[in-house]
Design goal:
This protein is of the alpha/beta class. It has helices spanning about 40-50, 80-95, 110-115, 140-160, 175-180, 195, 200-210, 235-245, 265, 275-280, 285-295, 305-310, 330-340, 350-355, 355-365; strands at about 10-15, 15-20, 25, 55-65, 100-105, 120, 125, 135, 165-170, 215-225, 250-255, 320-325, 345. An 8-stranded parallel β-barrel has the order 3-4-5-9-10-11-12-13, surrounded by 6 helices. The chain has a 3-stranded mixed β-sheet with strand order 6-8-7. A two-stranded antiparallel sheet has the order 1-2. Helix 1 (about 40-50) links the parallel strand 3 (about 25) and strand 4 (about 55-65). Helix 2 (about 80-95) packs across helix 4 and helix 4 (about 140-160) packs parallel to helix 7 (about 200-210). The two termini are about 30 Å apart.
Length: about 400
């Protein structure tokens, strides 16, 4: 290794907190809280990444309200969840790592059979995979959701989290406001990209007002979502600049894709159609086998596959740190990210395969992830998220928690 190479394993500052290195475990839906509360299983899940060397692990997906859930068993950030969340953060801190809570509202991804209410969107919308109708959210409800993000952030502070990650990606409710395909509003929350960015800016401002400088605030932001006529890089750059000027965020994690249609645009690699069909009700399995690849999309995997888009943000963001995501599997990739101007790098599937990968990369710069991007882990979000090559885990035997046609809830 060249002595002049950047060191991704040195401590680094993220807003008011200092991480022991620049590697973040990306948020991935976990399926380990069947009653919507922290379990020992969930704690062990995050302990494994923390002991494995990451600077910070991210707990996903934490709902800001019951109506914001995208799948059964997700943690709602309220007083009932607080004792378990405190236990989780204590365990992670004991390893020397930091821990973040991903806060989100599912919006068009929510299911009426789960939440009991019709899903909301910026404008009337029909989910193209579930064919579920989403009604237009009222202005008073917009204000309520902003309040819910603030209240959830307070729970995160009380629970001892070091950071919150605001889910502004994948066409969940905040992200859908950014999409001209879904947001056709005529009020101040619609129109051009400045108007469509208002909702995420007000969420970020409310969260910052609540947490102050006690913890870091991150936003996960779509660069583009792969849907024609929806979010694209030119407008995403403007949203990122507006958030940067506001000064409400400590970092932006750049992502791509949606949980509404063609989710493989986010993941890349093999399309696990047979595995998705296997967890579906028998009557739906033939259709999934025939149409699944079309509905999910097919995009080849390549290392650092989000870099070409993400590097467009480096020269225009002045005050907010940037987090690179997508196809990061070895130390060389971490160093490339730093050379390109990114402050932190987030890893998802590679750490599911090998939770101790960071420690092994520190010891041996030549170590590469054994993840082969078969993406069968996507299906395990319906039971307990894990790598299918882990012999200690059960795979594909339980009933599905959500319909695969509505898009996997995994977020990285």
């Amino acid at each position: 290794m060249n002595d002049l190479s950047p060191n991704p394993f040195a401590p680094a500052q993220l807003g008011p907190i200092r991480l022991r290195n620049r590697v973040i475990k990306a948020a991935t839906s976990e399926g380990r809280s069947p009653d919507g509360l922290v379990t020992d299983d969930l704690i062990d899940f995050h302990r494994s990444f923390a002991k494995g060397g990451v600077g910070m692990t991210t707990v996903a997906y934490c709902c800001v309200s019951k109506q914001g859930a995208s799948a059964p068993g997700q943690i709602v950030m309220d007083a009932k969840a607080l004792p378990g969340l405190k236990k989780l953060t204590d365990v992670v801190h004991d390893t020397g790592a930091a821990v973040s809570a991903q806060l989100g509202h599912a919006g068009v991804v929510a299911q009426k059979k789960l939440t009991g209410v019709t899903a909301v969107a910026p404008s009337r919308f029909v989910n193209p995979t579930s064919f579920a109708y989403c009604r237009e959210i009222r202005r008073d409800e917009i204000f309520s959701v902003i309040d819910q993000f603030g209240a959830a952030a307070q729970v995160a502070v009380d629970a001892g989290f070091d950071a919150v990650e605001l889910h502004f990606g994948h066409l969940y409710l905040p992200s859908s406001f950014l999409s001209p395909l879904i947001n056709r509003r005529k009020d101040e929350y619609g129109g051009d990209i400045d108007g469509r960015s208002r909702f995420v800016r007000e969420i970020a401002q409310r969260v910052r007002d609540v947490v102050g400088r006690r913890i870091a605030v991150i936003a996960k932001l779509d660069m583009d979502d792969g849907l024609p006529g929806s979010i694209w890089i030119d407008e995403a750059l403007r949203t990122a600049q507006l958030l940067d000027v506001d000064g409400t965020l400590d970092a932006i994690e750049l992502t791509q894709g949606s949980s509404v249609f063609k989710p493989m645009y986010l993941f890349r690699g093999d399309v696990p159609v047979r595995e998705f069909a296997r967890v579906m009700p028998p009557a739906l399995r033939p259709g999934v086998r025939v149409m699944g690849k079309w509905a999910m999309g097919s995009y080849p995997y390549e290392d650092l596959y989000m870099l070409s888009a993400a590097r467009q943000f480096v020269p225009v963001i002045e005050n907010t740190k940037l987090i690179l995501l997508g196809g990061i599997t070895n130390r060389e990739h971490l160093e490339v990210g730093m050379r390109e101007g990114f402050d932190f790098m987030a890893m998802g599937r590679a750490l599911l395969r090998e939770p101790d990968l960071v420690n092994r990369m520190v010891d041996d710069p030549g170590v590469r992830s054994r993840c082969d991007h078969n993406n069968k882990c996507m299906v395990t979000v319906f039971t307990r998220t894990h790598c299918v090559f882990d012999p200690e885990q059960r795979y594909g035997q339980a009933e599905p928690l959500i319909m695969p046609s509505e898009g996997p809830a995994a977020t990285s």
